[in-house]
Amino acid sequence: MTDELLRVEEVVKRFGGVHAVDGATFAVRGGSITALIGPNGAGKTTLFNVVTGFQRADRGEVVYDGRTVGGRPAHAIARCGMVRTFQITKALAAMPVIDNMTLAAPRQPGEHLAGVIARPYAARKREKAVRERARELLARYGLEQKADDYAGTLSGGQRKLLELARVLMVEPRMVLLDEPMAGVNPTLGGKLLEHVHALREQEGTTFLLIEHDMEVVMGHSDRVICMAQGRVIADGEPEAVRSDPRVIDAYLGGAAR
């Protein structure tokens, strides 16, 4: 495990008089799989939105790979190598799966008219490389037979796999997964977790995931961070966090005792 890749420092996000995130502070080390847990309304997804640039914090700092990224737009943060998925998948249902993939690829000269006119060969070459990369990833995640189908025809689990494959088009160093197991059957869920571990082991990808399935959290995370009422109340190894009285009271309930 390498040094910390992400640091969240005293982040605050308000909606009117409600503190959705209230001074959250933690760090994620490079090459780790870290779980972010907490009861509904704890501020987890709002924190994801702030970290990845979909919302702006009212106060605090987000540092990724040694650079302050708080306040930068989502696309700029993604270009730095930190991307996220969503609890409700964001596949473009009326487009083929392969086009959902290619849209995510950066550095496409064909996106701009000037690039097509001034460098047509480079545009065609890059487009070919992007499609080859997309098909390679779809094959890796068992979706190659669905490449030309509309994304809206995929099952919930297949859409989760598509989202993971699509974020890899950006070649990220860090991926934030928002409830990856939600709405996924156990077979596809198991495959998704296998891919997460493979990416960590083979490419050094760092993961921060929001998850309510405690079996997944305890069995697949190096560290666990627990939030409640917008604040971090526990941070450590899975077993230590699970037995923390503050976590039991705030999240797990008496059945975990």
TrEMBL record:
What sequence ranges are listed for the domain ABC transporter? 6-254
Q: One MF term from GO for this chain?
A: ATP hydrolysis activity
Which keywords does UniProt give here? ATP-binding, Nucleotide-binding, Transport
> What Gene3D superfamilies does UniProt report for this protein, alphabetically?
P-loop containing nucleotide triphosphate hydrolases (3.40.50.300)
| A single cellular component GO annotation | plasma membrane
Pfam families membership:
ABC_tran, BCA_ABC_TP_C
Keyword check for Metal-binding, yes or no: no
Which SUPFAM superfamilies does the protein's record reference? P-loop containing nucleoside triphosphate hydrolases
Q: Which InterPro entries match?
A: AAA+_ATPase, ABC_AA/LPS_Transport, ABC_transporter-like_ATP-bd, ABC_transporter-like_CS, BCA_ABC_TP_C, P-loop_NTPase
Q: What is this protein called?
A: Branched-chain amino acid transport system ATP-binding protein
Q: What is the lineage of its organism?
A: Bacteria, Bacillati, Actinomycetota, Thermoleophilia, Solirubrobacterales
